[in-house]
Amino acid sequence: MQAIATTRISILRGSTTDGYGDEVDTDTPIASSIPAALTEQSRRVTTRDDPTPRIVRYAVARVPARTEVTDQDRVRDERTGAVYIVDAVSSMTNPAAAADLRLDLRRTT
Question: Which helix (DSSP H) or strand (DSSP E) does residue 95 occupy?
Answer without folding.
Answer: none
